[in-house]
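$ run holo --ligand "fe (iii) ion" --emit tokens
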Amino acid sequence: MVDLLYVTKNKEGRTLSKEERRNKVLELLNKAKAMELQAIHQYMHQHYILDDRDFGELAAKVKLIAIDEMRHAEALAERIKELGGEPTTELAGPVVKGQDVKDIFPFDANEEDEAIDTYGQFANICRENGDTISASLFEMIIEHEQAHFNYFDNVDNHIKTLGDTYLSNLAGTPSATGPSKGFAFPSGGE
Ligand code: FE
Ligand code: FE
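-- output --
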């Protein structure tokens, strides 16, 4: 996690130079890019599990959310390139495999909640370092992560309160996602 004590000053208390501030922003953008790459792989894996178990509607939504995360990774990479950095290809952490359907939604709600909190801190640090474009990018992404959180949390609550009745109603539902679009990017985001 980011050391909030050294946002605009170094450890000796000296105010950061323009280049040091840009490098700090680049570090955050790349941390976020790695988080998005992890989310993409996690959600794609879950989408296959849900498809295999024939929960088409849930699979389709998780696929669309993975596509949103791909657009986030792209947007972050474009900003990294704009600032003269090199977009990372590393994942922030390992993909959890073989989850049960009931475990997927609370897990994902927690991932989104963590991303909202982290990106909120990143946006503030970008702004304190004078980079309002990167701050706005994080704020745009946070709105999408909130929509993702709301969906995952809703499904988790339905499963917890209605259990197998809810899930059996979703068995055999279609998994088609239609032409290129996302979850929080309904028109494709272009
Ligand atoms: Fe994302
Ligand atoms: Fe998300």
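-- notes --
DSSP finds five helices and no strands in the chain.
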